[in-house]
What we know:
Elements: H1 2-29, E1 35-37, E2 43-45, E3 135-141, H2 149-159, E4 163-167, H3 169-174, H4 176-184, E5 188-191, H5 198-201, H6 205-223, E6 229-230, H7 242-250, E7 254-255, E8 260-261, H8 272-282, E9 288-294, H9 300-315, E10 319-320
Parallel strand pairs: 3-4, 3-9, 3-10, 4-5, 6-7, 8-9
Antiparallel strand pairs: 1-2
Helix pairs in contact: 2-9, 6-7, 8-9
Amino acid sequence: MWTKDCRMWNAALAVLILLTSIYLGGCQSDKLPKASLTSSGTIKSAQPDIVSEEDDNSIPKTQDTQEAPKTESRPEPIAEPVPNQKVEAKPVIPLPEKSPLDTPIHPFYSLDGTPPSAPGLAMRKREFAAEPEKIAYLTFDDGPYPETTPHLLEILREEGVKATFFVLGRQAERYPELLKDEYVQGHGIGNHSYSHDYSSVYHSPETFLAEIKQAEEVIFKVIGIRPRMVRAPGGTQGHFNVNYYNTLDAEDYLVYDWNVSSGDAAAPLVLTEQLVKNIEAQVPGKTRVIILMHDSKSKTTTIEALPLIVHFLKEQGYSFGKITPKVAPILFPGGFNS
């Protein structure tokens, strides 16, 4: 009896376990991916859709989406280092010693390059180019100005002669195209300080040099050159002493005064005829002349006098040149006082 009851309980327990397994298997099958039958008769498991949480705009992958083949990322090419270019250094020229206090004043350069001499003066020997028997250097200070510079350039072009423009830095800043025109047409460009303000320019040799450097930077930005030729505002007479010359010569500048003046700065407006007479009176007896004129908006009679002055000089047998560092300066004697 007991044996028969045990068998019945075991059978009931087995049925119960079987029913439980079937129930649990059916619940789990809802969570598994459903299989599909392909056209070839194979069973293909479906993959659940995966969406990145980091990019809401990304396209979710489906069972028909194939990933693009991965390619190896190539590192960006590294530029070869540029070797340091050797900049040809300018030869270092030793500065001369100051002359003894008993040195006589000799206020001009010799054409062989021998510099002036004076007590305490320290100026280097130069090399100057040979010149024609009679040479005239036309120079114009204070420009450029739109009222005068284009007219002067046109006359010089028509006459076929070159001149030198000693420009102010402030004017070159205002009218860079006019400075370019002067340079492109082959004329010489010199430095006439930045401001032409005597209280600043002649405060000391150092302030004079600072004005020259300031104007030089303006000129360099416009036409790409750094002129070595300097003309002191108003000339060196009464403004310079040996310290000014020493300061400028140490920086390799050459200073140019003049030995003939048109006189166009004697008044706001000087008659054309008077300007020509001033030239005619000063030129005779000189084989090389540096002629002072002005390029400023009030000097309209200078424009009128220029062709007449050029014709006179041609009649006297002069050639025309532009000033470069190879041209020996003409200097006033009063600038060599200690």
